[in-house]
Amino acid sequence: MARFAAGDRVRVHRQFPPTPPSHIRTPYYIRGLTGTVERVCGAFKNPEELAFGRPGTPEVPLYRVRFRQKDVWPDYEGNEADKIEIEIFEFWLDAEGDEA
């Protein structure tokens, strides 16, 4: 069951590869930022586990999260309304205001 729903504000964890190294599927430039869940995409096997030949279970909810371009790239010179959407697994997200 998904922890978040469309419209929820979430913060992406600001973590770096743990020890031992893992196969991270969340872009570096989005870590630590806050966005809005655009939709719940479903639950899928964990690709960070699958990359190492592990079963990737249990399945994990995947979200499409929307961020303002200006929040991602402060020097962005495009339209203030421009957004970027990124699909992020639940274990990378906290509710806005929770510690990441």
Outline the structure in words.
The chain is globular. The protein has 2 helices and 5 strands, in the order E-E-H-E-H-E-E. It has a 5-stranded antiparallel β-sheet with strand order 4-3-2-1-5. The longest helix has 4 residues, at 47-50. It has helices at residues 47-50, 69-72; strands spanning 9-12, 34-44, 60-68, 83-89, 93-95.
Strand order of the largest sheet: 4-3-2-1-5
SS elements, strand count: 5
Query: Class by helix and strand content?
Result: mainly beta
Shape: globular
Order of helices and strands: EEHEHEE
Tally of helical runs: 2
Head-to-tail CA distance between termini? 21 Å
Given as residue ranges, the uncertain stretches (5+ residues, pLDDT < 50) are none
What percentage of the residues does DSSP assign to strands (E)? 25-35%
- Determine the mean pLDDT: 90
Give a quick precis of the structure:
It contains two helices and five strands, in the order E-E-H-E-H-E-E. The protein is mainly beta.
Topology readout:
Layout: E1 9-12, E2 34-44, H1 47-50, E3 60-68, H2 69-72, E4 83-89, E5 93-95
Antiparallel strand pairs: 1-2, 1-5, 2-3, 3-4
Keywords:
5 strands, 100 residues, 34% strand, globular, mainly beta, 5-stranded antiparallel β-sheet
